[in-house]
Amino acid sequence: MQSFHFKAFLRILVILALGLLAMYLIKHELTYSFLLVCLLVVALFFELYFFQKAHYSAIDRIVLAMMYDDYSLKTTKVQANETMNNLQRLYQKLQTQQQQNEIRELVYLNILNNIETGILILEKKGTTWEIFFINDYFSGLFDIPKIKSWTNLERLLPSLTHHLEVLNFKESKESIDIKIEEEEKQTFILQTSNTISQNQEYFIVLLDSIQKVLDKKEKDTWENLMKIISHEIMNSLTPIHSLAHNTQQILEEEEHLSEEDIDDIKLSINTIVNRTDHLQQFIDNYRKLTMLASPKKQVVAPERILQLSVETLMPLFKQNKITVHTDFSLQTTVEWDAKQMEQVFINLLTNAIHATAKQEIKEININLYEKNNRICIDVEDSGAGILPEIKEKIFIPFYTTREEGAGIGLPLSKNIVEMHNGYLTYHRREDKTVFSLNFPMY
């Protein structure tokens, strides 16, 4: 198939040939023939112009479509020249990529709209911000339409927009109170971040209802707790049921019990007693957690409570050859239930003893200090720490990794600390296990 350039070249040759013929005719004074050839040359010039125009119009049509992201053209027809074919193949490739991008965009939008977190994305326009995206959850959470104007968002959610302006649209993670129309203020966890893509700046806002987060955490905790309780109860009831049934069979089938039968019955009864004692102990521990008495607070010195706890466990420290370092640099007073808080420190130090008992380096550090106008206490040990996969479970009642453990020390300690308006957390610091407590300064 002849290319465009070859066809254009042939047309130019014909025009040149006719031009030479015209010169020959005028030289020999063949006027009418000369005029006829001139008209033919003019006609060929017009034909060449429209031939080129048609060719470049087709190119312009495809190029403009690519410039404006219009991939609706049907370009499956084989073209008359290689340049057009290459351009058409480029258009088809971009057309396929556009379709794939649209599919990905639909998938991403579907994911973002189904996430149970409010998502607001702002786009920088000059010196101002405009709304780029609002997901369904954000729209439903605040009962607002998917607006595109920052001005409209200021009108609908003034507390949020004002807070973002105070942040100067910088990265942050904090809590925020938002008033929705005439309703009471609700507290949300606010997380913001900046990103730049293709020289365009975006500001991403994530909002989670604290109540929703707490409800999920409480639900997960209760599910884990019920699993543990069910496990403990079934571990006791299954052998009790089996042994009781076995004893009943012996008593029903045997008129005269042999010595072997009596031994079997005694063994069954002893096992039942042991399991019921275990179950009773389990229930007693549960009562300790659920029926914890309200603190009887009085003014005490925290360093004195810590010192008493250390002295109580000093025989165990010596027995396990554990070195204890104390730094009570803060001298202050607090309103505590001394007995309850002493129990917390004994629980934490007992865990530290178990954690360091088999380590080469056996150290426990207890620090009392002030930070950000709060009383902080760190109980730090040189143990191997808690495995990452069970870190989230250590404060669940009855969850324990020690055979002799009851699994109530940490949950009970956490409850007591929270009843004293404090927090108990776990983390690793420089290969050390640290349980941190902090309380408000009075």
Description:
It is a single chain. With 442 residues, the protein is of the alpha+beta class. The chain is 55% helix and 21% strand. The chain has eleven helices and twelve strands. The strands form three sheets. Strands 2-1-5-4-3 form a five-stranded antiparallel β-sheet. It is elongated, with a radius of gyration of 42 Å. The termini are far apart.
- Mean pLDDT equals 76
Structural class: alpha+beta
Spatial extent as radius of gyration: 42 Å
Q: Choose one word for the global shape.
A: elongated
Strand order of the largest sheet: 2-1-5-4-3
Q: Give the N-to-C terminal Cα separation.
A: 94 Å
Topology pattern, helix = H, strand = E: HHHEEHHHEEEHHEHEEHEEHEE
Q: Mind summarizing the main beta sheet?
A: 5 strands, antiparallel
Number of strands: 12
Beta-strand portion reads: 15-25%
Enumerate the spans where pLDDT stays under 50 for 5 or more consecutive residues.
none
Tally the helices: what do you get?
A: 11
Q: What helical percentage do the residues reach?
A: 40-55%
The oligomeric state is single chain
List the helices and strands and how they pair.
Elements: H1 4-27, H2 31-67, H3 82-114, E1 118-125, E2 128-134, H4 136-142, H5 150-156, H6 158-166, E3 172-179, E4 185-197, E5 200-209, H7 210-253, H8 259-290, E6 298-300, H9 302-319, E7 323-328, E8 334-336, H10 338-356, E9 363-371, E10 374-381, H11 409-419, E11 423-429, E12 432-440
Parallel strand pairs: 7-9
Antiparallel strand pairs: 1-2, 1-5, 3-4, 4-5, 6-8, 9-10, 10-12, 11-12
